[in-house]
Amino acid sequence: MEDMQTIYGFKLKYNKAWRSREQALMAVRGTVEESYGKLSSYLFMLLNQRFQVLSSSIVRRCQFFKHKIRSQLLIAIALDANEQLFPVAFGVVDSENNNSWTYFMQQFKVAIGLVSDLVFVSDRHSSIVNALSAVFPEAHHATCTYHIKMNIVAKFKTDNCHDEFDMASRAYTVPKFHQHFNKIKTKDSRIVAYLEEIGMERWSRAFFPGFRYN
Prior knowledge:
Helix content is 52%, strand content 16%. With 214 residues, it is an alpha/beta fold. It has 3 domains: 2-43, no CATH class; 50-143, Nucleotidyltransferase, domain 5 (2-Layer Sandwich); 145-214. Strands 3-2-1-4-5 form a 5-stranded mixed beta sheet. Helix 5 (98-112) crosses helix 6. The longest helix is centred in the N-terminal third of the chain and has 16 residues, at 14-29. The radius of gyration is 22 Å and the shape is flat. 16% of the residues are buried.
């Protein structure tokens, strides 16, 4: 809208600008319906590939698809041998709930088979917790420290303890953990209570019972 006003001196209404943008995207990428129509052939190609899955996996949730096809993308990502993010599995579902996450985990288990010392790292969404308990009861489940920091900012309107939290979460020993965690105690007791409520074993390397990725 600003470009049209600046270049051509024409005041474009929002709805017309949006429709023009959609037409341009479809011209470049094709329609959403066409993209969905290619999924079957893409899945066929995946079935003919061979992958080696690592022992540690990250489970993430993505945002809603902002389009007329309302759905969500569930995806599992692992670290490869070069410590680069490697997508292992994904699923498109109507909404994020217990049924969709449980189904995703069931299919994920079929895909990777039995993996020892399996670790999942996710946000604190209750449906992920429930699905992992039902499908991967032997796996360890950690909480993503990035999500914790974002939640602290949203909940307490501050990032004053981010450095101390990072150092505490990455500490290898319990004494080192307390060295950094005590600094948070001197700054903001609210954040301390929030972190304790999550559970140290969920986000601290020193207390985590499994092998957590770096």
